[in-house]
Design a protein that fits this description.
Layout (H helix, E strand, L loop, with lengths): L7 E8 L7 E9 L4 E10 L7 E8 L2
Antiparallel strand pairs: 1-2, 2-3, 3-4
Amino acid sequence: MTEISDRLWICAEYMDTKSAYGCWNYGFSWKCSDKTSFILGYDVYNNKDLANTMTMQIDIDF
């Protein structure tokens, strides 16, 4: 999303199945510095027996 900021990354993904792998995933990443960034995402599963989840990841490059 260089139109907004060079540090912002937005994504969306869909996997079509009723298993634990089938879901909509969407989220964003923000690059805090040259060596650190974080990703925040949300997963909506196709199988209604599975609870939707939020995921967070912090990356530190050495």
